[in-house]
Model the fold of this input.
Amino acid sequence: MCRTTSAARRAAVTAAEMPVRRRRFAGDARGTAAIEFAVLAPLLMAVLFGTVAFGLDYAVRIALTYAAAEGGRAAVAGLDDGERKSLAVAAVTDSLSALSPLIDPAKARISVTFSGSAPEEVGVSIAYDDTRFAHLPFLPALEGMAPVAVRYVVTDPSG
Done:
């Protein structure tokens, strides 16, 4: 029995056998799913993380709107502008603290404005900048986001 080395075996392959090997390789479908996954996985992950990022941004926006509305509702109960402002700021701070895993209350800037004319309007505005996810290139930063604002009309029920 004669042993041939792999180099000798490769040299023994004739030109006529080469197309047969190529056809056999072309017909082999093993590993195609892994290759397709490797091509599509980055796109799918970008869509997934983009959806999560949009959901987080939207949830922050809804939470800020809720907190501003709570501040406006609380401000209506005040008798003068100083009391209205303190009630509004306290209500917004409480709301943001309750939502603290989603929102960092320290990054929120709360402003309360009054129209001064009858019927008086109380405006509560929250400006919020958040850069927790800014280091990820596919997630938009929340800095420079337009402030959330609500307006409530304060009327005297006695006329």
Notes: The helical segments are 6-12, 18-27, 32-76, 81-98. The chain has one domain: 31-154. The longest helix spans residues 32-76. The mean pLDDT is 78.
